[in-house]
Amino acid sequence: MADYENFVRARLPRLLRYATMLTGERELAGDLVQEVLVKAYRRWPRIRDADNPDRYVMRMVTNGYLSWRRSRSARLVAVGEVPDEARPDDFASDHALREDMWQRLARLPRRQRAVLVLRYYEQWDDAEIADLLDCARATVRAHAHRALTTLRSGMAVDHMAEARES
Amino acid sequence: MNADQTEVERLVRDAFAAHEHIAPDGDAVFAAARARIHRRRAVLNRPLVVAAGVVALTLAAATAVVLNRPDPTPADGLAGPAEQLRTAGPTSGASAEPAVADLPMPFALGWLPEGSVEYVARRINIGGSAEDPGTPLYGGEYMLTVTADDQVLRIDVQQFRMVSVDQAAFKSGPGRSVTVNGQPGVESANPDGLGAYELYVAHPDGGSMYVNVSNPPGGTVPAARLGEVGRRIAQDLRFPGTATVTPAFGLRDLPGDLRVCAFEVAKRSDAGPGVNTRYSVGTCEVLPPIMVGTGGQDVPTGTPGEPVQGRETRYVSENGHQRLWVLDAVDGSAVQLGGPVPVAQLYDIAGRLVLPD
After folding, report:
1. Are residues A130 and A158 in the same domain?
2. Cβ(B134)–Cβ(B44) under 8 Å?
3. Is residue A114 part of a domain?
4. pLDDT per residue over B89-139, tens digit each?
5. Which of the listed residues A48, A74, A100 is the one where a domain comes to its end?
6. Number of domains chain A contains
7. What is the pLDDT of residues B172-186, one digit of tens each?
8. Same-domain status, A124 and A144
9. Of B116, B161, B307, B324, whose CB neighbour count within 10 A is largest?
10. Higher confidence at residue A159 or residue B20?
11. Residue B8 C-alpha, separation from nearest chain A C-alpha, in angstroms
12. How far apart are CA B143 and CA B80, in angstroms?
């Protein structure tokens, strides 16, 4: 299984970053990818012979995240509410803006977050995302639109202006 | 698309990019997966043990000898922060020995660009190879920023004990071969792309060293400069490290086959004084481990629990994942323990926290 090891070693940093963007937490990302690596080993002949092994494993990570049995949303709500209205002081720096957005991303439904990660982090186009998520492009656009609307809500106009200037 | 939506998209991209560094260590994840695949228990030495009478973090003896070998040339840029950490560390009241000893990093940065250096995190991971699971492998990581002339560079340097140069992959596309100090390496051919400048260079003892130099979101340092800095950092890596870090609290005498899989001292996310200390505790075979640390965004909430070391506690149980906070444990802050384990196990570990007076 040297080819499995080589495959994993070459892709692991990217998979872990991707899983981190999906889950928002290092431990969960490690857990998710580890599960995928174990499953991938068992399915290795099929993955190796797939048209696009990279895409196959990305789909495994994505599906693993979407079907995660633990309720991440419950955990995140428990550890701290994101304020509905950001305070001006929070926007004193780019750091605060990014952290605020990171918190808002954590509250999105998983499928919406996955679409944003694929679109804005992995920089995939909607057709690729639709293929990975096994849905229509219109569905991808709808998820993205809803997610962006949610993220925008609660951010006051002056804060948005500040963000544009930063 | 209106301007607000465009700004939200930009913020989303920036938020993702700004959190890349929290991705877990690949070696540890792969080692854990491999152990599960082969259904065998890793026979790693306990890397963190208790010295008699002193609650000290000590690397496994054989490794400690190597890691503590004096570095012929002090690593600039590290002595200051390391010294500060050492000074700030808690000490036991009756003994001159520190309550929690410094932990040496496996390598040092011999050069950094001029500017104000701020360490985001220092991390030590412990894993094992498939070929020799009985020998612990220590990998280190420095995450830092250097600010000069209003320009900020983000720098991440890691030791990948189980990733060779020919397994390197770049998000920005194919890499190109380079040689650093006679060692083969590969660097990103397109440092303008995602991931910015990345370089893997072979470590003489196996595995590779990874250097990543990038702009923070909105940064404007040219790609050529990122490459210059990255290559120079790689040229001046030194082994073993001389930098040491001191945790704000310790762990003693972990129960059963639990051990520390990783240790991290990191900048506080709320920009407050001091640093956060975090341990990853488990068998190091199956993730997720139990996390024990200060800081984070978690607010101690939940149900009041049994006191630990005379301190109040709170706990929350959510879908099999337990969290326990020991309040007012380190400089007025809580230590949080969390993992998919019975809460009794968290209490057991909490009782083994070594907290400053």
Report:
1. yes
2. yes
3. yes
4. 333 333 333 334 556 788 888 899 988 888 888 887 766 555 555 556 677
5. A74
6. 2
7. 778 899 999 999 999
8. yes
9. B324
10. B20
11. 6
12. 16
